[in-house]
Amino acid sequence: MVKPAVCFLILLMAAAMPPLLVESSDDTNHAYSPCSDTKVQVSDGFTFGIAFAPRQSFIFNNSHQLSPCDSRLSLSNSNSRVALFRPKVDEISLLTINSSSFSPDSVGGYMVAFAGRKYAARSLPAFVANGTYAVTSFTLVLEFKKGRLQNLYWKRDGCAQCSGKSNFVCLNKQDCAINTNNCKNRGGSVDCSLGIQLAFSGTDKHLSALNSWYEVENLRQYSLFGLYSNLRDSLTSQYNKVF
Asked: Would you say residue 103 has pLDDT above 60?
């Protein structure tokens, strides 16, 4: 089995999805490594990883970004970490990482989502945390074409959700961040566990449209989106919603 360049795995929780790396009865995708190439259909499981490391660790020869599956990166020598998820294709999922057992700032403070090797896809590095601020909420979109992953990208909608909240600051006019002094793992009262809302777009291997990203966009207009946001709060016990 092909292994990614990062070799340390973090145990995770995921809402609205089957248990991690466990096959369901309607799952026809038997590729379980995030560095495997595969094509998927609606309701298949799909394995991908999120690597945590310093931003520069994702750049090769100071010139271009490579996938964490590429052994030319030195991630395995930089105290990096990787989390694995296997959500169901075209279902909206909520992924969480418990901050009581892992602090992203301790391994460099940036993350990259990735999958595939020959057809490698990876997101841009996203800032998560440093010694002063932590961003606890993200939306990740997995884009497919004919069932093959083409892109992973972080979807940002500015800082409207944290406007007027004294616990948060707006970073780079795009991310709501909390001061790490307020986090439980720093002696504060707020659970700063990382939450990632996951959605899909494009087409599966049968050319069926993947619509969950458009459903997320529509939910933002109605109170139902608030109900979904409350699910994250129930998992992480955080008192301020960021979605």
From this structure: yes
